[in-house]
Every structure is written in C-alpha cells, then in structure tokens.
Amino acid sequence: MTATAGPPVLRHEVDPQVDPRRLTCTFGGAEPVASLLPRSILDTSTLDAFAGRLRTVHDKVSERLDRRYVNPQTGPFYVDGARPGDTLALHFARIEPRESYGVSTTVPLFGSLSATGVTAMLHSPLPEMTWIYAIDRRSRVVHYEANESALRVELPLDPMHGTVGVAPALGEVRSSLVPGDWGGNMDTPEMRSGATCYLGVNVAGALFSFGDGHARQGEGETCGVAVEAAMDTVVVVDLVKEVATPWPRLETDEYWMTAGSARPLEDAFRIAHSQLVHWVVELTGASVMDAYQLVSQTAETPVANVVDPNYTVVAKMAKKYLPGVEAMAGTHQRLRQLGSAYLGLMA
Amino acid sequence: MTATAGPPVLRHEVDPQVDPRRLTCTFGGAEPVASLLPRSILDTSTLDAFAGRLRTVHDKVSERLDRRYVNPQTGPFYVDGARPGDTLALHFARIEPRESYGVSTTVPLFGSLSATGVTAMLHSPLPEMTWIYAIDRRSRVVHYEANESALRVELPLDPMHGTVGVAPALGEVRSSLVPGDWGGNMDTPEMRSGATCYLGVNVAGALFSFGDGHARQGEGETCGVAVEAAMDTVVVVDLVKEVATPWPRLETDEYWMTAGSARPLEDAFRIAHSQLVHWVVELTGASVMDAYQLVSQTAETPVANVVDPNYTVVAKMAKKYLPGVEAMAGTHQRLRQLGSAYLGLMA
Amino acid sequence: MTATAGPPVLRHEVDPQVDPRRLTCTFGGAEPVASLLPRSILDTSTLDAFAGRLRTVHDKVSERLDRRYVNPQTGPFYVDGARPGDTLALHFARIEPRESYGVSTTVPLFGSLSATGVTAMLHSPLPEMTWIYAIDRRSRVVHYEANESALRVELPLDPMHGTVGVAPALGEVRSSLVPGDWGGNMDTPEMRSGATCYLGVNVAGALFSFGDGHARQGEGETCGVAVEAAMDTVVVVDLVKEVATPWPRLETDEYWMTAGSARPLEDAFRIAHSQLVHWVVELTGASVMDAYQLVSQTAETPVANVVDPNYTVVAKMAKKYLPGVEAMAGTHQRLRQLGSAYLGLMA
Amino acid sequence: MTATAGPPVLRHEVDPQVDPRRLTCTFGGAEPVASLLPRSILDTSTLDAFAGRLRTVHDKVSERLDRRYVNPQTGPFYVDGARPGDTLALHFARIEPRESYGVSTTVPLFGSLSATGVTAMLHSPLPEMTWIYAIDRRSRVVHYEANESALRVELPLDPMHGTVGVAPALGEVRSSLVPGDWGGNMDTPEMRSGATCYLGVNVAGALFSFGDGHARQGEGETCGVAVEAAMDTVVVVDLVKEVATPWPRLETDEYWMTAGSARPLEDAFRIAHSQLVHWVVELTGASVMDAYQLVSQTAETPVANVVDPNYTVVAKMAKKYLPGVEAMAGTHQRLRQLGSAYLGLMA
Predict the structure, then answer these.
(1) A329, B333, C21, C77: most buried, per Cβ within 10 A?
(2) What is the pTM of this model?
(3) How close, in Å, is residue D274 to chain A by CA atoms?
(4) Residues 305..324 of D with a Cβ closer than 8 Å to C: which?
(5) D window 55-114, beta carbon within 8 A of C
(6) Closest Cα partner for B283 from C136, D183, A26, A151?
(7) Residues with Cβ within 8 Å of residue B324, at least 6 apart in sequence
(8) Class assignment of domain A9-245?
(9) pLDDT tens digits, residue range C46-99?
(10) Complex ipTM value
(11) How many whole angstroms separate alpha carbon A160 and alpha carbon A157?
C-alpha cells in the first residue's frame, strides 16, 4: 500500500438470491467469509432481516420465513491480529438503503406489548400484519401508510444497523436475534452512520458481522420490527490493542455511549450506566463515587429494544461536558477521517 | 381581581422554617392548603427534597433528616369542580431556582447501582457522600465539583420538578417518594417549564401537590438524587371535564408524552407505550394495530428514574408527525398563553 | 371469663350485611375497631374477599363488586403498648370456613398468565369466569368442578388467610390488595392454623387486621384468586418488645420462614433469603457468609403470589437442622399453648 | 449383551484426569461421545462442576479454574432415531456420590444476594470462600461446617443433577452454566433419582448430556453453588416419537412438573405455569380456563435457581388429584421398571 492509496479496501458482495441455508444467522459458529487488516475499509451490503422475502402487505412472516434463517448477517470477517483482550472498532461511514422500500410487521408472540414465549400468557396472539414503507432517498423520507385507515405519515429517513457483533466468549454460538456483551441484536438507533462501535474481542480474528438495517426505528422498537431494509454500508475497521471492552461502547462526534443488554430492563440500565461510570473514571481520573455523581446529572438514556431475548439500554454522555478528553486513543476521529476520505474518493 | 385582569391568581407562600412534622410528604392523607378555580394561576414555591437541611458536603442525609419528612410537597390544592373521571391539567409556566446552590448525595441502600432494601444483597452500603453545586441563574450554569479530585464540570441549568401528583385512588396514601398512576415522584427531566402535565382525578378536588425541584438531572437519575433545589414555580391549573387519564401524560409545544411507573422497568415501558398507542388511536382514529406500528417507528423513550419504589419510563411522540392534530381540546396551548400573559405582567 | 381461666379473650363479631362503605379495605387509614392487651385471644371471623357477593357461577366480579370494597379486613385492632420498633406476634390457632362453599374467579386484566394494568399489552382480556367449590368440613375436602367439561377433582381443605398486616410506615395507607413490609396481601398458603406471624410495628398500637380467607390455594395463586371463603378465626396476640422485624416472618413447629414482597419476583426472593440469612446469624451466631452458605443448601422456597401489586416469595428453613435453637424468645411455643388451651376450653 | 438380559446397556467411563480443554462445557457444538438406542441403559459418571479442582477450604474458584472449563458435562450422547419434534425421556434410576466429600463456594460477582456482571452495581464483591462437606453415604448425611465459627449441621444427603439438556435450536451453542428450553443448568432439586426428565429434541440424535451433581441444594441455590459432587449415575433413555415438548418437563411417581427458565423470575414462573396449564388440558381434556383454575388451586411452586443467566421455576401438580391419568403414554412407569430391573441385576 502506498501513502497516496489510502487504507486497504475490501469490497464484499452479498448475493440477495443466496440459498437461505447458507446465510449467517449466528454470532460464532460460522467460518469467516474474508479477512481484513486493521485500518481497512469494508465496502459491502446487507440483506434485510427477512432476507428480502416480505414485499407486500400480504406477505406474512409466519408463512414466508423459516425461523432458522431470520436476520442474516454479512460476515463474519476475520481481523488480522485481533486477540482476546483487544477491542475491535467499527466506524460506520455510510449506511444507505439499497431499495426504495422498507417493511415492518407484527410477529405472533413477539413484541413489547404482546405475550411472548417467555412472558407466557393465555391470550390469543395479536394479529399478524405487514406494513410496506416507501423510502425516498432523495427527500430523505420514509412513508408510513396505515393498513386499516387512511392515515399517512412522513417520517425522516434515519438508516442504522440493528445488529453488530463479534463471536461470543465461552465457545457460545448465539442467534443473530439476541444482543449481549458480544453486541448482536442491540437495535439501537444510535448505530447510524457517523458512529464508531467498540466491541471486546473474544476469539482470534474477532469474527465480526452486522446486518438488520433499519430505514428508521423508534426507541424501544415497540412492536419488535423496525422499517427493515437492505443496506449499502461502508465500515472502517480497526483494533485497539490490549484494551478490553466488557460491553459494547459507541462514540460519535458528540457522545460517548455504553450499551447494556439483559433482562429485566433495569439490569440493561445497570450495565450501561455502571459501564459509563467506569468509562468516566478512565477518561477523567475521577473516583468512582464522583463519576457516579456526574453520570447521575448528565446521562441521557434512550431505551434501545424491549423485544429481543435480552433488552438493551444505551447510556450517553455528551462530550461537551468534558472538553479535551479523548477516548480509545482518538480512534473515532481517526476512523471518521479515513471513512470520509474513502467516501470522497468514491463520490 | 377584575374580569379584565386575566385569570384568578393564588399566591401561596411556603415557609422554609416550618416544623418538619407539618410538611406534606404524601399524596393523599393531607388536608388542602387552599382551593383554586379551574383556569387559575398558582404562584408559589417549593422546598428542596431535603427541606433545606443539606448545605455543605459534610451534611449527610442519614444524620440530618428524619426519613418521614423527606421530599416535602407544596399543597395539596383543592380544585373546585374536580371529580373522579376528570383530568387535571397543570401547565408549568416557570420553574426557577430560589437559591444559588443545589445539592446532591448518595444515600445508603438507595440508587440504581446499589443494593437496596428490596434489591436486597449482602454487600456493605456504598459510601454516603454529598455534593454541593453552585447555580448561576444568570449564565444558566450548574457547577459540578468532584469531592475526591480536581474535576470541575459546567452543566446547563435545566430546572424541573421531580414530583407532581394528585391523591391516589382506593383511599390510598402514598409517600412522596413513590411514583404511580397518580403521578408522584416520576423524576423525569421532561417536567420542565413549558410542559403541561395531565393527571386523572381520583377524589373530589383532585388534591394536587408538587415539589422535588431539580436544577438538573440525568435521565434515569442514576444515583437516586438529582441537583436538588428549592424552586419558585408558576403553574396554570385547569380541568378537562369527563376525560379520564389512566396514567400521567405530558404535552409541550413539540411532544406528546406518556409516563408509566412500575417494576420491573419493562412494565414501566409497557405502560408508557401502550398509553401512547391508545393516545394515537384517540388523536388519529387509526386502529390499534396501525397505531402500534406508528409508535414503533417514532417513539422516543428516555428513562426517567430507576431508583424509586416504582421506576418510570417516558414515551414521546413528536407532534410534527401528526400536523394539525390537537389533544385535550387544545388545553396545552390555552394554558401556555395564560402562563405567558401572567409572566409578562409580572416581568 | 375469670382471672384464673387464662388470657383475656376478645370476641369480635363481623356483620356480613354491613354497608360496603364501612368495610376496612386498607392497612392504615382506619380507626381501630377494638383494643387488646398483649397475650390476648381474639375470637372473630372474616368476610371472604368478595364480601360474600359472589355465590353462583353466574356472578361476575366486574358486575357485582365496586373495586374500592374488595378484600375487606377484620380490624384494625389496637394492641396496648405496641410501639414502633416492637414486633407483633399473631398466632393462628384456628382458621375454619364459616360456609359450605368457596368461590374463585378470573378477573379481567388480573392474574399471572394475563396482561394486566401494569404488564400492559394490547391483547383482549381473558374470559371472566366464576367457579363455586363445595366445602365439606367433615371430610376436609374442597370440590373443584370444571365449568366447561365434566372434570371433577377432590382437593384437600387447607384453610389459610391471604392477608395479614399492620399499619404501614411513613403515614402510608395501602390497599388490602397489596403486600409489603407491613404484611398485607401476601397470599402464602403457609399462613394456616399453627403458624405464628411476626410483623414489625410501625405505629402506636400496631393496628393489625386480617382477612382474605382461602379454603385452599396453589403456590403462586396463578390466576390471582384462591378458593375464597369466609372464616372463623382464633388468633393469639402478643408483642415482642424492642425487637424490630423489617419484613414479615412466620414460625411453625417445623419451620422458620421469611416473606419478601416486591417486583420483579427475584427481588421478593432476595428479600426473603437475605432476611433468612440474617435470621440464621441471629439464631446461631454464625457469620453472614457462613449463614449464606447454610441457607443456600437448606432453604425451601415456595412462591406465594405472582399476581398482586407486589409479588411474594417465602423462604423456609427446617428447625430440625438447628436443634435446640429458639427464636423470638419462644413466643411461638407460648402462643401455641395459649391457643390450644383456649380451643380446648371452647370444644 | 444378550437378548434375554433386558435393554441395551452403555457403560461410559469418564476420566477425572482429562485435559480440561477436552471437557464438554456446552450444549450443542460438541461431537457425540457415543450413540444409544431408545430404551437403553446408560451407566456412567459425572465430574463435579469444578472438575475436581477444589478439595480444601483454601482452594478458590478464581485461582483454580479457567472459566471456560467450568461445569463439565458427560456426553453428548446421540440417540438413534431422535428427530426434531420428538421428546427425549431421561429417567434417573440412580444418582450416587462417587467421593466422600462435596464442595461449595462463593464466587465473586455471582449469586442471588450479590451484585453480578448483569445486575451491575458499584459494590466490592462479597468474600470468596470455600466450604468442604463430608458426605456419609451409609448414613445418608452431608456435614456442613462453618468456616468462621464452630457451627456444625447435619443435612440429609439428597443427590441430584443440576444440569441436564439437549442441543439447542437455531444452531445455538450454550454454555453449560445456562438453563433454557433445551434444559441445561436448571438447578432444581427435583432432578433426583426416581425422576424422568422430558426434553424436546432440536437436532438429529438429540445430543443430550448431563452433569453438575449436587449432594444436596436448597431451593433457589441462593449463593449460586450447591454441595457439588462427582456422581455415579444410571439413566434409562427413551424417545417419545412425534410429541413436542417446548419446555422441560419432569415426572415422578407422585408429580407432574414443568420447568421454565428466563429472567425476570416471574417469566420463569409464567412459562412453568402456562406449560402446566397446557399439560392439564392435554391430560384431562379440560378447557384452558378450567385448567388455569385447577392449576391455581393445586400448583406447588418451588424456585429452582435465582443465580444462573436464566432463573428457573418449577411448577408441580400432584398426580393424586387426577387418578388414572397417564402422561407421555406411560413412559415414566416403563422407564422406572427398566431402571429398577437393571439396578437389581447390578446389586
């Protein structure tokens, strides 16, 4: 690589017509599709969570999908040199819908306002229903259309990835429907372009993958399904060597964020906020009690999902409160520049 | 007061030196301190949650306060004509710190990252510590100072009331430390000036009170104590007759909001979001399933508190998504105008 | 009764035809109906939780009852000399159905396998249905009859009180539907005759009451309603002076038990088991860690209720494991003897 | 083995000195160690949860064990003919300690009365401590000895397996520390000899394994560690073809039982009790509402564990209430006879 050539670039094609049995629907348990050097660009795409099988309001999840092949991920990718105890950094430089539509549904016995397989009740399931959203990339609008009335609502396009993760610890293999300390299906709208996601490495090569693009979603993902959409995505990949990250962290130009995933929801909150306290200790040298106090008066706390096998809460601290403080040795700023340069080159 | 002078105004003085045994520290169970007509202005003040007893970093809650007299409320006020089945509307026109300091603490066996009396564990309590914040009302800044290092942080002044409620149903009397369907200690930063709070009336006269001013707080109120401050507060009071409000709702110029209070935290989420779904049904005529879908893609969901006997989650929908829609027969807009007029008169 | 005949006896009549508005349906907030000396016998009765209003399978809760007058209690009784910091001991010497029937129901949006007002969902409520049980006191059998098939099942009569409590702390008044540290609606089948219930005193006179007789119930009270029955009940009342009891405890000839009430259910578990650990420390002089270990290998942990506003878990330790150890200065044995003597006299 | 000798018998040796990296510490993700025909006897043994590495009170988990190799399982075994949609039946004919000692510990940030990695708090961990129990197989006694005082307690020997499971669905691989719908680390004392465990088959061959023998444990396994002991175990294995079992069930001569594993604990309760309701429907032909009622008055509900990544609750119904009713086509009785015959032959 020459100084003028920029970082290495991996272009990885995803075949929308692939046999579903060949989809990667787990974290862990799959062979890498490619390998990458740290400080590389990955230019790829993702299928939507239904692998493109729902296209009209008449398509039902329960009829069109085998539950083993839901929420396919692009990857896993092997990062050269990644070892347990390191942190993987994934900067999302671009997340853009591939198609001019997105889809949402209700799924029987799934969703925050429904009995489920574990919040087991004796009610009949809620109706299964599908909504199709027109996506207008030029005007950056997503069009909601009610199925049972004339209601139409224009919503801002706000693309993001619901699922980003690495292979879990302890030899576990987890469904891509589950979030946890390996990342996974966190379903937070904070995972939009401009964000850097930090994930602790559990196995050699990290084996990261991502998918579950959403043209937008509400916080909490109330019914369990966002505006699901295939995405074109550019990620800048890096390693922070010998820095452990016990739970996923995010960084943007304006915020440091921690994500906790657990049940009940207060445990997701506890994880996210204790991680934020410990991060403030690292960043400022404050004592734990002083950091606890500062977090108590400054945290912003959007709920990410209350529908997956673990729920996710994000805790955010505005960087403006701690001017001059830099996290992860400036990784976010560096990756953002690499991403911008690449996108500029491609434009 | 003359007909041309605007709405009736009640000025209610609160004596900071009052005998603690005469403080109102419950919702229900107390005689009204005054009565008000609907469409009145209430111009009053509130003590801080410690009744002013903590003033230096050496003052500890466990030494300075009798737990029966914590979180005193201003009120209760009797609203003429309020009957069970009506909704009380309280528009906060002004919430302004009375003093140039605020105070926060940790309290043994209290807070989201601590064992408590009900999340009972065998650990020793975390250290009890007090922080004093200088409040600069002119520059709108609150000054955080670490106790155990040199860290200093400037935070925006953002005054609000942690506790607003009416007398509960079923003849219950609840501590002002508890939130529930009667409102109470919801501890959401959304209860700032400019917000209208709607509460279902359970007893004749509604018997509302409020207090627990915060110069600011993080979402979730992680350690359980915000920047506690005495407040000067102007409220515009009204009734929405024969409209029931099962759980508290808030309205600002930009948002409709619902607040759910329960444990575990997912039940607070479920209450807030099911209430938001039902509110969208009322506002738009959409079906429940279509409203569920719209809420799923639009809700903003800040956690309010994860420390009180019930936890509180707020669900918000931006009004811009439903242009031309008006809630509660325009009560918020009307009260905001009355409040602005009164403040203009006083300026 | 003469001075030589044993303890003072209070016979308290309950009028089944009383105006519902005069029923006591709270803990706290009601004037005492009578006062008692410590070491007294109270010979009284209780209405069933529906105040006798459901008598056939066609009677529905939602049609026949005002929710303000559900679960009426007998009392409150003022115990002379009871002060905050003491423990009230209530030994149930006899609990016997007054009538030859009991009743159970489903209640819309109530029960562990149903959406509720706080586990708020979008499902339609489960069907409301009433079951009438014949109670055969001679053969000690309760007769279950299915409503929708020919299934008939004979179950053992096992009478108990679902609700036993004192006035709460902090001036609170709580619905008799709620359990907490004051006792209340714990709904544990362990509250049968032969058991002594210990409750911490919060207000002068303790102001105890009880009710909610069940001819039997399953652990957890799955649908939320047991075989509800009016009871004739004999209680021996005593005080353990200057012994605080933070959460309810029970004692029988064979077990020491602690009851925790909270949400989520694991917090009820944590309360009950941490209380049992601390009780073992008091009884044996063991360290907290050694007691934790002993409880871990010996506790029996029946769920009491998963339906009320707080859930209740009971932790039990068999007395046989700690031979020669006596709790509460032998109160249980003493009250059991007083109760037996009284019942012998009455026979 | 001869044709007249009864069912096929597999004797499977477990090497206590095996390299830890060769231990099976997951459900799923491991190659079968042997295959079995339905209606076979498996005569084998299990290592204790610490693979024998803790032998004195000075041995600490954090010093002696690699967390990847905790809770090793014997297996997995491939059952010929087992297909997804079938039910595997495992009858425990004999569970007997191999050694004359058992071991328990506290583990930092683990246990129901401790902050943990997910119930994340700011407390220091509780002390790490180890207890050694002498096991007297002849007198059937387990000897508790306090570490910090002279307290000694004799407890009944009551051997059981904490962990029994099959390979999970969706290609997942789960740590043997986790319980779920595949069984796993349910930690219920009901899994003693005499019990038949029914598990739904998710993959060809079922791939069952078991381990985590306990010389005894309290319900809830409060500190997270029972009296851990290596076991000699005889299991009778069978298939119930084309009967799906969504969550683990158990059967003894006296009880039908269902086990639910989830967080929060009320969801484990909901799973277990809804499964019991549906089982009563299958067994009696009653309607769901009538079965719900019967379960409400008869269920016994011991908590199994409140310490693992999912908590487990067991719901039990006494068979005596439904005389003449047979579950799973009499599998339990049949396997019990096969087991007794084999043990008789071996005696």
Answers:
(1) C77
(2) 0.98
(3) 6
(4) 306, 311, 313, 315, 321-322
(5) 104, 106, 111-113
(6) A151
(7) none
(8) mainly beta
(9) 999 999 999 999 999 999 998 889 999 999 999 999 999 999 999 999 999 999
(10) 0.97
(11) 10
